[in-house]
Automatic annotation (TrEMBL):
Topological relation to the membrane, as annotated: Multi-pass membrane protein
Protein's UniProt name: Putative aldouronate transport system permease protein
Native organism: Paenibacillus catalpae
Family listed: Belongs to the binding-protein-dependent transport system permease family.
GO BP terms: transmembrane transport
Pfam families cross-referenced by the UniProt entry: BPD_transp_1 (PF00528)
Length: 290
């Protein structure tokens, strides 16, 4: 069908609008990356930075030779992988029974869980609880307290409820129990929601920094986001990284901050393309035959 002139004009406007959104989203990364590879004078220049005019790799050399940066990257990577996998497993184990209509008092359990989305004990009671559980200066303090995000678990529950009960009933006729149905049938049909919630959990774990400040004092357990905050907000580490004999201590501060931001952001960005194909819900097509 041939498009009219009005439809062509709308397509052009829509394309330009999306292109503008892409530029707005991508440019900050280009700007920061350009500064990270620039000499101090160029890094401090006001205006747009599309590419480094005066390339200087000193900031990256200083950054990549810092032991605690690699310690933070190791801890953050382990936290993200372990936290995401365990979170998906725990959410599935909680969401599946809540999605079954035959669960006794299902509405009551759901209400209690939803209650936790709006009310919490506060920072001090939470800290005392973490202390009494012996999780202070413990790597598991990054994993266990936020193992089951309530909102994400409810989304998974609602998705499980959309799966036709005929699939479950046919599996029970063949002798499958609830655990077999969950792992062999429900979860394979739930790849879109698992990918989406997994990405949410991964981003949340990767970007988390507050718990590293409150509950952890051991430098060997700090995350990359904690060190990123130290560099960008306090500038303490940036001054140490950028110290050059016979030169101003802060001459590379701006480029070192930019390099640290890129170093902390790029790994989680790489994960997105591998999960994007699961975002469109389509795995249910053909799961039932009429």
């Amino acid at each position: 069908m041939k498009m009219t002139s009005g439809e062509k004009g709308f397509q052009v406007i829509l394309f330009l609008f999306i292109l503008l959104l892409c530029v707005i989203a991508i440019y900050p990364f280009i700007h920061i990356a350009s500064i990270s590879f620039s000499a101090p004078k160029e890094a401090g220049r006001f205006g747009f930075h599309w590419f480094p005019r005066d390339i200087d790799l000193f900031s990256w050399k200083q950054l990549l030779t810092q032991k605690k940066i690699w310690i933070g990257m190791r801890n953050t990577t382990l936290r993200t992988v372990l936290g995401t996998v365990l979170s998906l497993i725990a959410m599935a184990l909680a969401a599946y029974p809540l999605s079954r209509k035959h669960l006794p008092h299902r509405s009551f359990y759901t209400m209690i869980i939803v209650f936790t989305m709006f009310f919490s004990g506060g920072l001090i009671p939470t800290y005392l609880l973490i202390r009494d559980l012996h999780l202070l200066n413990n790597f598991w303090v990054y994993i266990l307290p936020g193992l089951i995000p309530t909102f994400s678990m409810l989304i998974m529950r609602n998705f499980f409820m959309t799966i036709p009960v005929e699939v479950e009933e046919s599996a029970k006729i063949d002798g499958a129990n609830d655990m077999r149905i969950l792992w062999s049938i429900i979860l394979p049909l739930s790849k879109p929601v698992l990918a989406t919630l997994g990405l949410w959990a991964a981003v949340a774990n990767w970007n988390a920094w507050f718990d590293a400040i409150i509950y952890v004092t051991d430098t060997d357990l700090k995350t990359i986001q904690f060190f990123l905050r130290e560099v960008v907000v306090t500038s303490a580490d940036a001054e140490i990284f950028g110290r050059v004999t016979g030169a101003a201590n802060l001459q590379y501060e701006t480029s070192i901050k930019a390099a640290t931001v890129i170093f902390a952001v790029v790994p989680i960005l790489i994960a997105y393309p591998f999960l994007q194909k699961y975002f469109v819900k389509g795995t249910m097509v053909g799961s039932l035959k009429g």
